[in-house]
Amino acid sequence: MLWLTVAFAAELLSSGAKAECQHTKCGGVDIHYPFGIRSDNCASPGFEIDCNDTKPFYANAEVLNISLPLGQIRVMSPISSSCYNTTSKGMDSSTWEFQLAGTPCMFSDSNKLTVIGCRTLAYIADEDYVGNYLSGCVSACRRGEVKSATNGTCSGIGCCQTPIPKGLNYYQIWFASTP
Ligand SMILES: *[C@@H]1O[C@H](CO)[C@@H](O)[C@H](O)[C@H]1NC(C)=O
Ligand SMILES: *[C@@H]1O[C@H](CO)[C@@H](O)[C@H](O)[C@H]1NC(C)=O
Ligand SMILES: *[C@@H]1O[C@H](CO)[C@@H](O)[C@H](O)[C@H]1NC(C)=O
Ligand SMILES: *[C@@H]1O[C@H](CO)[C@@H](O)[C@H](O)[C@H]1NC(C)=O
Q1: Pocket residues for ligand 2 (CB within 6 Å)?
Q2: Which ligand number lies closest to the CA of residue 39?
Q3: What is the pLDDT of residues 52-104, one digit of tens each?
Q4: Which ligand 3 atom is at minimum distance from the Cα of 85?
């Protein structure tokens, strides 16, 4: 799982809420107005949290933390993968997209696309046809030794990173085979 930061406009926070809507919890996560649980009718429009099996979700991502002072929420992002299948002798891919268009949130530019692998070329882009953003990076290593990548760093061996620009509110990931 990866960390994602979602930034929202601080001026939206100053508006008031009914007393019973000021604060609630879902799982271990504190939810303060303008966020609220959809079924409680407490959220300011666009700030609805779905509390599902005591786990909070925003858009299609699980919420880990909401910080009003920072204007950020942290969500869990599933990892997209593309792995060789020795049975089918093909690549099995599972890719993920994140849609925040139509919400008050966008991705924080503190996020990076991180790619781990030995012959891995991953792309990240905003929406097909109407988008402006396309980037990606190649992760490579000698003799398949991705274990030389060090936990907690992305030093260039078996790992690469590329920035995510300010203002993005949608991304999709896909893989291409590298020679
Ligand atoms: C709630 O959780 C169930 C089981 O994990 C899942 O099938 C369902 O899609 C979830 N609903 C939402 C709105 O996330
Ligand atoms: C959420 O973030 C705040 C501020 O960084 C921190 O004090 C709090 O412990 C965090 N809560 C969780 C559940 O991670
Ligand atoms: C590999 O491919 C086979 C045949 O398509 C499939 O049944 C199997 O689940 C795949 N293995 C993995 C680990 O995904
Ligand atoms: C990497 O480091 C994190 C934080 O120190 C730790 O929680 C995690 O288990 C480590 N992963 C591996 C594969 O060593």
Answers
A1: 28-29, 65, 67
A2: 1
A3: 989 999 988 999 999 988 888 999 888 999 988 999 999 899 998 899 988 88
A4: 1
